[in-house]
Design brief:
It contains eight helices and 20 strands. A six-stranded mixed beta sheet has the order 6-7-8-3-9-10, sandwiched between helices. The protein folds into two domains: 227 residues, P-loop containing nucleotide triphosphate hydrolases (Rossmann fold), CATH 3.40.50.300; 117 residues, Nucleic acid-binding proteins (OB fold (Dihydrolipoamide Acetyltransferase, E2P)). The chain is α+β, with helices and mostly antiparallel strands. Keywords: ATP-binding, Cell membrane, Membrane, Nucleotide-binding, Translocase, Transport.
Length: 355
Amino acid sequence: MAGIEVTTLHKRYPDGTVAVEHVDLSIGDGELFVMLGPSGCGKTTTLRAIAGLERQTSGDIHIGDTLVNDLPPAERDIAMVFQFYALYPHLRTRDNLAFPLRAEGLPKAEVEERVAEAARLMRLDALLDRRPHRLSGGEQQRVALARALVRRPRAFLMDEPLTNLDAELRADMRTEIKHLQGELGTTMVYVTHDQVEAMSLGHRIAILNKGRVEQIGTPLEVYDRPASLFCAAFIGSPPMNLIEVELADGKLRSKSGLALTPPPNLPLDRSLIAGVRPEALEVTEPGADGTVPGRVVSAEWLGDEIIYVVDHGGQRDVRVRMPPTVRFAADAPVGLRHTGGPPPVYDASTEELVA
């Protein structure tokens, strides 16, 4: 196992396109580290640079104590799992797993031992004699993971490996990957655009945008205190409500009069935007204490909760997460109030967290 250090990584293609502007990462030995961001943010290019599949324009990459800038992928001692499983269709599961070991020229007994161990870990024992066309999507993904496992690399690199699975299988495979990483204690770098995967899997998450790292933190840190308006709008489903506010009478107030508790050390010399999670707001009967008048624009009924979109006379509508027992029809008048603690507050010009 090994940690991974990425320093001032930059990638520019010959046509002038900049895929990675500036990325610094310090990934701990045995950490499950997730790179999260929208399409085109540079996360896959960064992963491919770590793997040696892309040559960076500048910057350094260390795997363990080894500077790998000039090493080909085969000499970096990593294993990569792709979005597409890339299994050999004419080979049985057993031979798909054994292929990279046979290519290294390992003794037959060791190959069989490693294949058996990987099959046990990924629960493939009953599937060893099947070819890929006889496997489900989830089974094929487990074979792809097992094929990476047999190599016993210093680090695993995973590029959106669950994208092609349906929702139920994705949930199952998230559990499998997290359990596997915990059992092996190996370093994993996992790329995804799915925030649910990132939040449920990662020890830490790096949020990328336009080739730069916007924030690195634990799932709780990036959820509770996003470092920028981009992170605030990207993390959470629904995302944070971003509300223009000003300090008045000891409260942060929106244009509609919605009152929020201000955080300490709030700068007063700039335009401010408060980030309010949907669960930190409440809709109730109109006229209730501490509420501002609002109107239900729409309601999303999700079984265990209802997401209300409420027009409160502010700059934009807000989303409110409520239990399914609180029911209002579309266009119904409601009262809206803030029930949480001090929200994170951002500078409207720099879009960065200020308090």
